[in-house]
Design brief:
Layout lengths: L8 H14 L5 H17 L1 H12 L3 H27 L2 E3 L10 E8 L2 E5 L7 H12 L3 E5 L5 H14 L5 E3 L4 H8 L5 E5 L2 H13 L4 E4 L4 E5 L5 H13 L9 E6 L1 H19 L15 H8 L6 E4 L3 E2 L4 E2 L2 E4 L16 E6 L3 H9 L6 E5 L3 H10 L4 E4 L20 E2 L5 H6 L1 E8 L4
Parallel strand pairs: 3-4, 3-6, 4-5, 6-7, 8-9, 8-15, 9-14, 13-14, 15-16
Antiparallel strand pairs: 1-2, 2-18, 7-17, 10-13, 11-12
Helix pairs in contact: 2-4, 3-4, 3-6, 4-5, 9-10
Bound molecules: nicotinamide-adenine-dinucleotide.
Nicotinamide-adenine-dinucleotide binds next to α7 and α8.
Protein name: Aldehyde dehydrogenase
Organism: Streptomyces cylindrosporus
Pfam family, one: Aldedh
Length: about 450
């Protein structure tokens, strides 16, 4: 199924670079035509892609559409609606010493040949949404799907060449050897989504060619729950955000920080919320996903005894099922708190109050997302001012990344650079400074 492309990475890149040099990818008409074809690919082949996502991750068709296929269609539509405006040169004031007849502006130039490396957890969205931005900015693009989502990788390798300009867009399937070979080539930008260990490998390889990188990484995204919050609303929204895709979401709430009384009151609320969403036996719910592979299943199973089980706790290796699980009385030094969980386990850690919660967050790596549930504007302001995270969500996890006009990206250990909407144009273009002084 997973046929490697016969063409060698060096040949792929050389071919795409030759195309870029002809100027073919630069006209806005070419860009919008590619985006429209990609849109058509998604609408026409939505069921095929959803089936692949089900095969790889047990995603329900509704979830596959909502979080991957329709998500990408929305990104395309938003880009098509605004691209002309985003690409418009921006005039800059000219200082007096250049005279009144001089003018200056910035213009967005495509970078050239861009490499997009995608992970397995949202294997369609996290490959196609960067592709949308790279094409909209007028680049030739090599995409490398994750080998850990083989059905989706194969579907993308089949569908993209049938819909996009194959002289300018190439799919290279494969794992570490293929990616290593690609990374030896010179690109004009590398856009990597995945874990920080590989992020470092990517950045090292990019340094050889002085290639700029965007690193969309992960980490532990905390949730602060204030004692004034409506805990049924909190539990419902956290359960929906955490257990989507069986917790395998880069911006999933990783752990809850709250005071001991609120932690105790949250326990029955979590039980009600899980049951309302997935029934008494989530393994029988068509809406609940599975763990991507045995390695991650074993890693996650080893974290289940890091605290007292409030909800869930059961698992089945044969079907890679781990129940939606909430753990209480979790020691901050326990294994579940030492790594990004990236699975359906939600530990609750208690702190005396807001000051200690802020210290707890600032003592650790800067997270990709931080979520806050409070009615207090003062608390919201303090957290916004005193912590650093890729994104900040008040009252609703995950949702900030669905706002096309917000940049999506990390800070510190959670990554560098951002994308979505006009921020993708910033990422995949060079903003060229231009000065013009008439000759006469
Ligand atoms: P993964 O294992 O699929 O790896 C990502 C990509 O890196 C794949 O295409 C893979 O082939 C490639 N790769 C793996 N090892 C490599 C190596 N040694 N050299 C070169 N390339 C290599 O996915 P993953 O890293 O397990 O993804 C999970 C991580 O990604 C989590 O930390 C998660 O938080 C993060 N993530 C971040 C975002 C975001 O948008 N910021 C989104 C999803 C996932």
């Amino acid at each position: 199924m997973n046929q490697p492309t016969p063409e060698q990475p060096a040949d792929v890149v050389a071919r795409l670079r030759a195309t870029f040099r002809t100027g073919r990818t630069k006209p806005v008409e070419w860009r919008t035509a590619q985006l429209r074809s990609l849109r058509e690919m998604l609408t026409r082949n939505g069921p095929d892609l959803a089936a692949a996502l089900h095969a790889d991750l047990g995603k329900s068709s509704a979830e596959a559409h909502r979080t991957e296929i329709d998500f990408t269609i929305r990104e395309i539509d938003h880009t098509l609606d605004h691209l002309d405006g985003w690409l418009r040169p921006e005039p800059a004031p000219v200082p007096a010493h250049l005279g009144t007849d001089a003018s200056a502006w910035t213009q967005y130039d495509p970078l050239g040949v861009v490499l997009v490396i995608a992970p397995w957890n949202y294997p369609a969205q996290l490959l196609l949404a960067p592709l949308v931005g790279a094409l909209a900015a007028g680049n030739a693009v090599v995409v490398k799907p994750s080998e850990l989502a083989p059905a989706t990788s194969a579907a993308i390798a089949r569908l993209l060449p049938a819909h996009l300009d194959t002289e300018a867009v190439a799919v290279v399937e494969g794992g570490i050897p293929e990616t290593t070979a690609l990374l030896a080539e010179r690109f004009d930008h590398i856009f990597y989504t995945g874990n920080g260990a590989v992020g470092r490998i990517v950045m090292r390889a990019a340094a050889e060619h002085l290639t700029p990188v965007t690193l969309e990484l992960g980490g532990k995204s905390p949730v602060f729950v204030d004692r004034d919050a409506d805990l049924d609303v909190v539990a419902d929204r956290l359960v929906r955000g955490k257990f989507l895709n069986a917790g395998q979401t880069c911006v999933a709430p990783d752990y809850v920080l709250t005071d001991p009384a609120t932690a105790a009151a949250l326990e029955p609320a979590f039980k009600r919320a899980v049951e309302a969403l997935y029934g008494t036996d989530p393994s029988a719910s068509g809406e609940y996903g599975r763990i991507v592979n045995e390695r991650h299943f074993d890693r996650l199973s080893g974290l289940l005894d890091s605290g007292r089980v409030v909800v869930g706790g059961d698992s089945d290796r044969a079907t890679k099922y781990i129940a939606p699980t909430v753990l209480a009385d979790v020691d901050p030094e326990s294994p579940v708190m030492r790594e990004e969980i990236f699975g359906p386990i939600l530990p609750v850690v208690t702190v005396p109050g807001l000051d200690e919660a802020i210290d707890f967050i600032n003592d650790r790596d800067k997270p990709l997302a931080l979520y806050v549930f409070t009615e207090s504007e003062a608390t919201k302001s303090r957290i916004a001012a005193e912590t650093s995270s890729g994104g900040l969500g008040h009252g609703l996890p995950l949702a900030h990344l669905t706002v096309s006009d917000l940049p999506f990206g990390g800070v510190g250990e959670s990554g560098m650079g951002s994308y979505h909407g006009r921020y993708s144009i910033e990422t995949f273009s060079h903003r060229k400074a231009v000065l013009e002084k008439p000759l006469s």
